[in-house]
Structures are given as structure tokens and as C-alpha cells.
Automatic annotation (TrEMBL):
Name of the protein in its database record: CDP-alcohol phosphatidyltransferase
Entry's Gene Ontology BP terms: phospholipid biosynthetic process
GTP-binding among keywords: no
Record-linked InterPro entries: CDP-OH_P_trans, CDP-OH_PTrfase_TM_dom, CDP_ALCOHOL_P_TRANSF_CS
Family the UniProt entry places it in: Belongs to the CDP-alcohol phosphatidyltransferase class-I family.
Lineage start: Bacteria, Bacillati, Actinomycetota, Actinomycetes, Propionibacteriales
GO cellular component, one term: membrane
Transmembrane regions listed in the UniProt entry: 24-47, 54-76, 82-102, 114-136, 165-189
Amino acid sequence: MATPAEQVDASSLDVWTDVEAERVGTAATVVTFVRTAIAVVLAGVAAREDSLPLLVASLGVYWVGDMLDGAVARVLGCETRIGAALDILCDRFCAAAFYVGLMWLDPDLAPAVLVYLAEFMVVDCFLSLAFLAWPIRSPNYFYVVDRPLWLWNWSKPGKAVNSSLFAVLLLVTGWVAVGVAIASALLLLKCLSLARLMRLGLPIPAR
């Protein structure tokens, strides 16, 4: 029986990594580093100045920059596994800076924020980096390995729910109980995803 990877047609071959193209210095990684630096600095200044507008600006730079580096990588043909891994880690840095700043401005939001950070910084980070066990360029192409996991985590709706819904709800409403409920639901989804990934098994490279 063919594996999921073997069932992909020739039109999808651009999902596979090109070992010779792997490098840190690409236009996309430059965008990743720049947007991360700007977002983190804005979050730090926002906390120092007790400024919610600056903190929202930090979040905006993080989100827009995250879309931009991916677009640059695809348009310029410089998608690499190194770039994808750096993007995943920089996303966590940006998110941590924003949410720590949010707790600084409104400590009452801490329960919801801490549950979300456990989900995003730990479980989701492990899930997102798991793509490195297969020869694909990034988690965006995980559908060639397991489509349900991709739909839940790295499809456009999956990404939007994980990264946008929680932040927007807290900023607009400030409802801690609802925030805890949403963060807990996301954590449950990620734990279920992790259980499915473990059943799938992580390939171990040959010696």
C-alpha cells in the first residue's frame, strides 16, 4: 500500500525539500528577522509606556510580517526548511512578547494568556517543528504526510483560529473566562493532534 507521500502526483513535487538550496541567508529569512525585531521592540516599548496602541501595533507587525515572509519565500522561490524552522521559532518570540506585554497591561488576563502560551509555545511548537522528520519544505505541505493534521493545524483556517481568534477576542472583549475556554479548546485540539502524530510515528533517519 502506498504511503501518503507516494500518493502525491507530480504537480505537487515542489513540496519536497531541495538539499542544495538550504541556507539561512534568503530574502524571506531577512523579512522574518526584521519583522521579529520590530514586533518585539514595539512590545517592549508598549509595556514600558503602558501603551495598548503600541502593543496592538506589535501584534500587527507580527501578523503582517508572518504573511509577508511566507509570500516572499514562495514568490522568490526561496522556501527552505531552515527558513520554515526559523519562522516557527520567531513566531513564538513575537507571540510571547505580545502576550507578556498584554499581561503587564492587564494582569487579570493572565489565566487565559498562560493557558494559550502553554498551547502555542510548547505543544504547537513541537507539532510545527515535526515536519522536519519528513523531506518537506514546511508544515504548509504536511498534507502529503497526514491531511487531517494539516487541516487542523496548518491550513489557512487552522492557522487563523490558532493565531488570531484568541488575541482578537481578548483585545476586543477582555473576557477572561471566554479566553480561558478558547485557549483550553485550542490546547485540547493540539493535544489530540500530538496524539495523532505519535500514532503516525516520527521517522528516524538512517545512520
